[in-house]
Amino acid sequence: MSYVDSILNDLKKKNSNEPEFIEAATEILESIKPVFDAHPEYEENFLLERFVEPERVIMFRVPWVDDKGDIQVNRGFRVQFNSAIGPYKGGLRFHPTVNLSVLKFLAFEQTLKNSLTGMSIGGGKGGSDFNSKGRSDGEVMRFCQSFMSELHKYIGPDTDIPAGDMGVGGREVGYLFGEYKRLANVHVAVLTGAGLEFGGSLVRKEATGYGLIYITQMALKPRGESFKGKDVVISGSGNVAIYAAEKAISVGANVVAMCDSKGYIHDENGIDLDVIKEIKEVKRGGISEYLDYPGKRKTSEYMEGEIIWNVPCDIALPCATQNELSEKSAKTIAKNGTKFVAEGANMPSTNEAIDVFLKNDIIYLPGKAANAGGVATSALEMAQRSSRLSWTFDEVDQRLKNIMENIYADIDKVARDYDHENNYVIGANIAGFIKVANAMVAQGVV
Questions:
Q1: Which 3-state string (H, E, C) describes 387-437?
Q2: Catalytic one among 104, 113, 125, 368?
């Protein structure tokens, strides 16, 4: 049995009740097997035994009082996975599906993603099973204050810098930061995704979506392709999906479908993104409301309970949530002639779906590379706040574009170096892993 297989078997035994974490670990470890022939020092230093274990896991209760005066209790988490190349960095997710398995998988992925950015940031992730839907601003504020009253003990600008994620937008980051500032009595870059009024960065809201388009453009270019005139399907209608759509449309794409958890909007002539923004960013409503707007096109249709990947397209951008794209949907995508799949969400494609993409010669860009624009711009926000500077939109956007272009160049080169040309799963995992592994070896047994 190989070194990697033995570690993976042991990991499955120890974490048998954590399917999301096991799925992510399997995908990563299987793809980095070629590294160990070239780097025997990793096995000699028992590197994988340490690499697959979080450095620290924090779990706590979050009691808060709702508008009726009733006491509610949620669970809070922070998984500080790896700090070999820098302080922990990764989002906070507030959603009913949050549990330890999900956060360990996200933090593990984040470690490699952050490594790929070329910046000195380690990997972490956190959140709560709190659901903000239907809650008032006052209830969200009281929850965030209670959550931070415990979390603040474990984070700091040189220790762990959380950011927003699913269910944690500008409102939540504001409440969280306010409570941290009150408790710690310092105004520092301890949370990114802050408002522009108190240290936030331009482009942060757009960064993940824009970055997704920039790296996809890099994959299209050497193959004689571009977004111009291409039909694009984007799952989701949150922050990542909206700004991926915005940038894709700006470079000539025809975005024909977007969705939320209830169903999808399809228009072969292109959706009206302004309507989507009004529904999701202003009203916080359901995408089904699209048909009620006068600005919608006559060719629009809403499909409730249907899978968006049945809509034919040239480029598929899954931007909703983990495991949203199954093997069956991947086969449909392949059958429909889609040539490119790039992930805006974290691990939205199952391992079986990824196998379908690779076997059908679909150019597939995994999330740890393709959606790294968000955390990269968070690091740019940290730099601006530390130096008390504010860069223009164009300055930040150009830095983001450069980072995404460098990520593509790195994963493409590594895939070629390890004789797996066009396999960006292997390229991304190995490129991210080697930097972290070398730092861990250099720092000894810690």
A1: HCCCCCHHHHHHHHHHHHHHHHHHHHHHHHHCCCCCCHHHHHHHHHHHHHH
A2: 125
